[in-house]
Amino acid sequence: MKVLVAGVFNVIYKVTGSKPVSFVLALIYVTVCNLVIVYGIGLLFKELVSLAGLILVLFSFPIIIVTTLAMAGFVFWAMPSWDSIAKEGKKVRAYTPLVMYTAIGLLVFFYSRFYDKIF
Question: How large is the average pLDDT for residues 65-89?
C-alpha cells in the first residue's frame, strides 16, 4: 500500500503543488478504491461464503459511515509518515501499481453495477 499511496501522492502533488492537499486526496482515493474492491468481493462471494453477506450489511446506509471511517483509519495507519511520503513522492517511479489498482477498482465497480445485465 506504501507504493500505491506514494504514487497517488506523486500524481496529485504534480497537479496541485500542495503537500497537505495531496496527502488528504491520496488518503481519500485509496480509501474509496479499497471500499469499492471490498464491496465487489462481497457481491462476488455472497452466494459462496456465508461471511460475504456480512460485508454487504457493512455497506448499508447507516453502517457505511462507520465502515468508511474504519477503512480511512486503516489506510491512514498503513500510510507512510508525512516526511516519508514526501520523500517517496519525489522519487521517479513507474505508475503500474496505481494503474492496475485503479483498473481493478473500476472493473469491480462496473461489475457490481451491471452484473445482472451482463449475465
Answer: 86
